[in-house]
């Protein structure tokens, strides 16, 4: 009877051990299975991180070539990415490493996004500057064309009143004439016929200019730099002026025309220059030519 009882106990123990072994095997398999799944997920994430790091490195390479101001800082960031790639390729990734790499990738993405935004803004600013530059060039070109058409007038008008009491000379004109024996005057530009030169200019002031007497010295110079006319000399201390004639003008706050006639003899063809001086200051000039 005792032997039968021992046999029964052994059977129960054996069954219990078998069940325990089965459970252990099942639990081990589940752990192994879960480990493999986790390993596959981590490897997939690792490859994803490597891909994103390479993209970030390429973006930094492009930024380095386009941004000289931040080049040093960008090179440092590129080296950080290179170091991370070396580290992740030689390391079995775990959850802690995954979080670290993800954080670094997000930081790099923010840097690249900021650089991209800055690049777009710089491009926009450059386009705006180009438009402004083109507009300025257009305005300057139009202004130059306009000034070219008015250059003769500006020669006189740029001497118009700069200060309240200044008197100016404008509309300096010359007429080359032939005076006949009967006293008639004929306009001509032939040197062989000209015997009279008429010079006219306007003296202009303003309401606050005090009445005064003005002496204007006129030079008539031929193409060989010879003085035509009376050939007088005036010493102003700072300079000696050679002139053809002078006009004494009594100015009374009203514009007036001043005209002088110079007799010419043995005039040669060529270009002639007429200069009007207020003391030793050149205030107006013009030219004429004889054939």
What does this protein look like?
It comes from Flavobacterium psychrophilum (strain ATCC 49511 / DSM 21280 / CIP 103535 / JIP02/86). This is Chromosome partitioning protein ParA. Keywords: Coiled coil, Membrane, Transmembrane, Transmembrane helix. The chain crosses the membrane at residues 12-32. Residues 98-132 form a coiled coil. This protein is α+β, with helices and mostly antiparallel strands and 291 residues long. It has 2 domains: 2-124, no CATH class; 155-290, Immunoglobulins (Immunoglobulin-like). 50% of the residues lie in helices and 26% in strands. It is built from 4 helices and 10 strands, in the order H-H-H-H-E-E-E-E-E-E-E-E-E-E. It has helices at 2-66, 71-89, 95-149, 151-157, and strands spanning 168-179, 185-187, 196-204, 212-221, 232-235, 240-243, 245-251, 256-263, 270-278, 281-290. A 4-stranded antiparallel beta sheet has the order 2-1-3-8. It has a 4-stranded antiparallel beta sheet with strand order 7-4-9-10, with no helix packed on it. It has a two-stranded antiparallel ribbon with strand order 5-6. Helix 1 packs antiparallel against helix 2 and helix 1 (2-66) packs parallel to helix 3 (95-149). The mean pLDDT is 77.
């Amino acid at each position: 009877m005792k032997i039968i009882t021992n046999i029964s106990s052994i059977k129960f123990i054996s069954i219990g051990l078998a069940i325990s072994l089965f459970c252990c095997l099942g639990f081990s398999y589940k752990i192994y299975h879960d480990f493999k799944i986790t390993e596959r997920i981590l490897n997939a994430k690792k490859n994803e991180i490597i891909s994103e790091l390479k993209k970030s490195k390429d973006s930094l390479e492009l930024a380095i070539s386009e941004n000289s101001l931040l080049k040093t800082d960008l090179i440092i960031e590129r080296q950080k990415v290179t170091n991370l790639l070396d580290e992740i390729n030689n390391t079995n990734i775990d959850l802690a490493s995954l979080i670290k790499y993800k954080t670094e990738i997000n930081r790099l993405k923010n840097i690249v996004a900021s650089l991209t935004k800055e690049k777009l803004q710089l491009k926009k600013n450059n386009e705006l500057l180009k438009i402004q530059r083109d507009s300025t060039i257009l305005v300057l070109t139009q202004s130059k064309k306009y000034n070219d058409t008015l250059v003769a007038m500006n020669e006189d008008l740029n001497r118009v009143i700069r200060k309240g009491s200044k008197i100016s000379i404008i509309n300096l004109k010359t007429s080359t004439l032939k005076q006949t024996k009967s006293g008639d005057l004929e306009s001509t530009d032939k040197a062989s016929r000209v015997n009279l030169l008429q010079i006219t200019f306007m003296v202009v002031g303003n309401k606050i200019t005090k009445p005064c007497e003005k002496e204007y010295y006129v030079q008539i110079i031929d193409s060989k730099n010879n003085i035509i006319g009376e050939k007088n000399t005036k010493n102003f201390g700072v300079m000696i002026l050679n002139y053809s004639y002078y006009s004494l003008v009594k100015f009374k706050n009203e514009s007036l025309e001043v005209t002088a006639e110079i007799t010419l003899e043995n005039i040669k063809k060529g270009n002639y220059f007429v200069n009007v001086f207020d003391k030793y200051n050149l205030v107006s000039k013009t030219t004429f030519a004889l054939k």
